[in-house]
Amino acid sequence: MDWSKWIRQTHRWLSIIFTATVVANFVTMAFGQPPAWVVYSPLPPLFLLLFSGLYMFVLPYVAKTRSVQRAIG
Asked: Residues 20-56: pLDDT tens digits?
């Protein structure tokens, strides 16, 4: 399994975890003031989603630049 597939699969699982933590956050808010760890629990998967998403966003541009450099050089 290469890096792109691994990061893409990790990004998918992180999105599921992030969604579950946001849902849990709203559910606990329905019962009153939630504890701080529940409120901040979506943040770690969100930051990991940011990095994996940025990697996947930049990947086509890097690949295009590499293919152009191979054609020239």
From this structure: 999 999 999 999 999 999 999 999 999 999 999 999 9
Contact 48, 14 (CB under 8 A): yes
Between CA 55 and CA 14 the distance in angstroms is 14
Q: Which residues make Cβ contacts (< 8 Å) with residue 14, sequence separation at least 6? A: 45, 48, 49, 52
Tokens at residue 9, please?
């699969």
15 close to 5: Cβ distance less than 8 angstroms: no
pTM of the prediction? 0.81
- What is the DSSP code string of the chain? --HHHHHHHHHHHHHHHHHHHHHHHHHHHHTSSPPHHHHSTTHHHHHHHHHHHHHHHHHHHHHHHHHHHHHH-
